[in-house]
C-alpha cells in the first residue's frame, strides 16, 4: 500500500525527521485558511500516488493565501497521470539551496534493507540510476545491528555533503530507517531532502510503500488507503481475501496457492498462451470466495478461456466445484472452462460439475490442462 506524501512525512516526523509546517486541504477555502495560518509563501502540492507531480504541474508556489486558494482550486480540478487530485498539501515554502536524495528499499537479493543517497535529488532516482549510476551511494543495513554512524558518515561524504551537516544528516538517516522498520515498509524515500538557506536539512517530499502483509500491525495507517490506488477489481479481491493481480493475457487462471498459481502461469506461457491474471484463492476457500474470484476473472473482457487448477489439500474440491457452479449461475459466461481438480474430495467435485447443466473441459495433469486452455482460448477446442 502506498502512502500519500503528507502521511509519509507525518510518519517521518514521528521519528524525528524535520518536515515543513503544513496541512492538507480538500477545498480551496481550506487551502487559504492553512496558508493564512502558515503566513508567507507556501507550496500547493497535489496529493496523488504518482511521481513527477512537479513536472506535471501539480506543484505550485504561492506568494500569499489568496494565491494559494487560487492555485489550490486549479490543482484540485486536475488529473495527474490519470488520477484525480482530491487533496492538496499546503506547506510552508522552503528556501532551497541543495536537493539531495535519501531512500531505503528492501534489497531482496541481499535480504536486507539498503539505504541510498545521491547528490542528484529532486529528479526521479530511476533516471539517476540509468544516466549517472555512480552518483548513487548505497549501504546495506544489517537489521539486527541497525544503521551505524560510520555508514551515514560514509554516505554523507560520498555525496559531497557539507561536513557541518553530517550530524544532522545522521539524525535524518536514522529517523528514516526507524520509520521504515517501524511501519513495516518496503520503501521509504525523501526526494528531495533539501539544504535550506539557514543551513538546515528538511524533508520536502516523502513517499512510503507499506508491506500489505504487515498492515494489520498498523491499523491507523491501513485505514488511510487511497481508493484510487487500486482498480475496482483489485479492491473487491482484497476485501474477499483473494490475492489478485491483473495481467494482459487471455487465459483467466483460478488457482489455490501462490506457488501453484506461478507454475500455472509459467506452463500456460510455455504452451503458447498468456495468463490474464495471477489469482490465489488461498487455502480452504469456500464456495462463496470461489464465486467472487470467478466473477472477477470474467469481468475482464480480454478473457477468452478460464483455467481452474485446484490442488485439494485443505481446500476441498467439492467446495470449489460448488463455488464454480454458483458463479456460473450468476454470470452465465460464454467462454470455455478447463477444469483440473485433484486432491481432497476430487471425485465428489467432479460429480458436482458433471451433475450441473454446464459443460466444462476436464483435464487430469497440469500440462494437459494448460494445453487445453490455450486451445480453448483460440477457439480450437469446445466442451
Ligand atoms: P514530485 O515532483 O512529485 O517528486 O514532488 P516534489 O515534492 O519532490 O516537488 C518537486 C520539486 O518542486 C522539488 O524537487 C523542488 O524543486 C520543488 N519544491 C517542492 N517544494 C518546494 C518548496 O517548498 N520551495 C521551493 N522553492 N521548491 C519546492
Ligand atoms: Mn519528489
Explain what you see:
The protein has 13 helices and 19 strands. Strands 1, 8, 9, 10, 11, 12 and 13 form a seven-stranded antiparallel beta sheet that branches. It has a four-stranded antiparallel beta sheet with strand order 2-7-3-4, with helices on one face. A four-stranded parallel beta sheet has the order 15-17-18-19, with helices on both faces. The model has no long low-confidence stretch (mean pLDDT 94). The chain is of the alpha+beta class and 383 residues long. It folds into three domains: 21-92, Dna Ligase, domain 1, CATH 3.30.1490; 96-222, ATP-grasp fold, B domain (D-amino Acid Aminotransferase, Chain A, domain 1, 2-Layer Sandwich), CATH 3.30.470.20; 231-377, Rossmann fold, CATH 3.40.50. A hairpin with a 4-residue loop joins strand 11 and strand 12 (201-203). It is elongated. It has helices spanning 5-14, 28-38, 65-76, 125-131, 149-158, 166-182, 219-222, 232-239, 258-270, 287-298, 317-331, 346-355, 366-377; strands at residues 2-3, 22-25, 42-46, 59-62, 79-80, 83-84, 88-92, 96-107, 112-118, 136-140, 185-196, 201-203, 207-210, 243-246, 251-255, 277-280, 305-312, 337-343, 361-362. It binds guanosine-5'-diphosphate and manganese (II) ion. Residues 43, 45, 51-54, 59, 61, 91, 93-94, 96, 99, 122, 191-192, 204-205 line the site of guanosine-5'-diphosphate (GDP).
Give the SSE layout.
Blueprint: E1 2-3, H1 5-14, E2 22-25, H2 28-38, E3 42-46, E4 59-62, H3 65-76, E5 79-80, E6 83-84, E7 88-92, E8 96-107, E9 112-118, H4 125-131, E10 136-140, H5 149-158, H6 166-182, E11 185-196, E12 201-203, E13 207-210, H7 219-222, H8 232-239, E14 243-246, E15 251-255, H9 258-270, E16 277-280, H10 287-298, E17 305-312, H11 317-331, E18 337-343, H12 346-355, E19 361-362, H13 366-377
Helix pairs in contact: 2-3, 5-6, 10-11, 11-12
The site of guanosine-5'-diphosphate has 18 residues, from strand 3, strand 4, strand 8 and strand 11.
